[in-house]
Amino acid sequence: MKLERKSCGRQVKFAPSDVKVGAFEGYGAVFGNVDSQGDVIAKGAFKETLRTWQKDRGGFPKMLLQHGGFFGPAEDGIPIGIYTEMSEDDTGLVCKGELFALDTDKGRYIHEGLKSGALDGLSIGYEVVDVSFGKKPDEPRRTLKKINLFEVSVVTFPANDAARVDEAKSIEQIETLSDAEGWLRDVARFSHTQARAFVSRVKGLRPRDAEGSLKADANRLIERIQLITGVRS
């Protein structure tokens, strides 16, 4: 059995604040997208393996960090959370999960890494079951038609830049200045420096005689974002 790994999803999206802390979702794989290895995953490639996981184990493939014991030191093979949902849609492999042990140093470190965007990739560990090979220069090296999926890892460097962890996309979900700074980076495409400077300037608009609050600061920031970007939701 030859184990492989591949990063070809989208950004991980943290759940709204009223959902369990540490919950997130993203694409572990995207269909029809040629990755840096010249491979394409075909729609339907995960259906059988997901049915097997549900039938035989009553759950989903493991959630690891940087592929853990499969491609790194054995001591790193301990799961960092669980996937609560995993399915195919027209885009790719949808993964919804929850980090655990958030009261430990490692759990907090991983959580902060995801929130900051330093850890923002998803990558699959798998065995190829059915594959076709490209015969022309303009065809993919391989088209993966059926995959035996073992794990979906949170990673730093995805093989395909579409494999990322999504931050919250809606302006309505901004509750703090940190949320707003993340929105500016991930949606409005500000650089880290630009987003931080913008947030600092808006925070400085607080009236001198007002106590203010994080929510009030965030609301002020939303108004400025909407004025500059034209985005309303």
What do these coordinates show?
The model has no long low-confidence stretch (mean pLDDT 77). The radius of gyration is 20 Å and the shape is globular. With 233 residues, the protein is of the alpha+beta class. Helix 4 packs antiparallel against helix 5 and helix 4 runs parallel beside helix 6. Strands 1, 4, 5, 8 and 9 form a five-stranded mixed beta sheet that branches. The protein has a four-stranded antiparallel beta sheet with strand order 2-3-7-6.
Keywords, please?
5-stranded mixed sheet, single chain, 233 residues, 2 domains
SSE blueprint and pairings:
Blueprint: E1 4-6, E2 13-14, E3 23-30, E4 39-41, H1 47-57, E5 62-65, H2 68-71, E6 81-88, E7 92-99, H3 105-116, E8 121-133, E9 142-155, H4 177-186, H5 192-203, H6 214-229
Parallel strand pairs: 4-9, 5-9
Antiparallel strand pairs: 1-8, 2-3, 3-7, 6-7, 8-9
Helix pairs in contact: 4-5, 4-6
The overall pLDDT, averaged over residues, is 77
Number of H- or I-type helical stretches: 6
Whole-angstrom Rg? 20 Å
Secondary-structure element order, N to C: EEEEHEHEEHEEHHH
**Unreliable sequence segments:** none
Biggest sheet features? 5 strands, mixed
In percent, how much strand structure appears in the residues?
25-35%
Structurally, the number of domains stands at 2
Structure described in brief:
The protein is an alpha+beta fold and 233 residues long.
